[in-house]
Amino acid sequence: MRTHVLNGRVRTALWFSLAVLFLALITILGLVFAREAVVTDFSRKNLPPSSACIFGTDWMGRDMFVRTLAGLSMSIRIGLLAAGVSALLALLLGILSATMGKAVDSAVTWVIDLVMGIPHILLLILISYACGKGFRGVVIGVTLTHWTSLARVIRGEVLQLKEAPYIKVAGKLGLRPWQIAWKHMVPHLFPQFLVGLILLFPHAILHEASITFLGFGLSPEQPAIGVILSESMQYLAMGKWWLAVFPGLLLVLTVALFDVAGESLRKLLDPGSAHA
Amino acid sequence: MILEAKHISFRYGKETRQILNDFSLKLSQEERLGLIAPSGFGKTTFCKILAGYEKPDVGEILLDGRPVSDYKGYCPVQMIWQHPEQVVNPRLRMREVLAEGDHLEQRVLDGLGIEPDWMNRYPAELSGGEMQRFCIARALGERTRFILADEISTMLDLITQSQIWSFLVDEVERKGIGLLAVSHSMPLLKQVCTRVRDLEEELRG
Questions:
Q1: What is the pTM of this model?
Q2: CA gap B29, B146 in Å, rounded
């Protein structure tokens, strides 16, 4: 008996495309409305949501919908950069750790344990502050704190691959370690890497928003989601609920969508679980 | 060149059975030596040690008086494995698998009956016998001085077996490659090799 018209695989692929499409849309709209997001108009300040401004306006008369889009777009771009560099770092260190002998391995695993041992947000604040906050501080901070778990996964995979007979044969045929890494290991690691990369996004975005909210991240004049949320705190007690609720909901939606994208990609690349 | 195994002893881990015990062997480039022994004797293990894949607990493998593990880059001692599907990367096309080895003459590919069409296939799209021909070709690179053939023809039918063995014997003779052939089959080894050692008999005697 068939209850679904679409099988699990097709449905998963559909979810993935939807999530990616929506995130791309937010990113592009945010870029398009970058200028509108900072326009102030004191004739319409503190308006509750209406058909003209669906998310309402703030105390400087800025359209909260446009501002939220611009903020999320900024968050996604920061996430893209930080998660991308972080994942590359994880790939590099994971492979180095597994192939360069005991000394390198213990050094890398020690750093992994060190970074994982300190609470994320604490280390993030320290690094961001040390790097002068702002865009640069946030990106460096997020990058340096998020690579560890993926590096661990990749190290494990490489250790297993190293014992495969075809890799040992390649060594006897005179291939250099970097050639073996590139030709034999990277293709096996790529699916792991891609999924790990996408699942890094939600963390990166939430942490970016968190440290900006706490004041150690992006500067107040930038339309960042963390800035919006922390400003809204001052007005929440005065009944301006829309300043926090809509940007907050959209942030949650964005993070959830990245999770959907990563999970569905994982299912697609691991065929056994696609129909689960 | 002379390939020499001196007093090799080996076991996998501490708690397990002793597999090789004070085993020695000498092979020159002009020779084709056959090794015959029952299952579980340690033939494959010995080949792995001889080719430098495993380190013996006691003893050493010398190639012209130098330990085999000292040779960096392309190893002059190449092993052809019993199970070809383990020694090719499932994600590479056969063309790339071959490219890992030395430069190969077309004559070798023709002699082994490798069809041009197979070059663009993935390992999963070939049979075991077809894949084994690629593994044999790959081991026959220009810098190879010794070939260790570990039960390489068990998955082939008799006609193909004789075709591949006669090519391999011609090829090693032409290039002056020393051959160590390991098998269960005495008639095969008698046909292929210049001398044969029966390990079970040596152990009893």
A1: 0.69
A2: 7
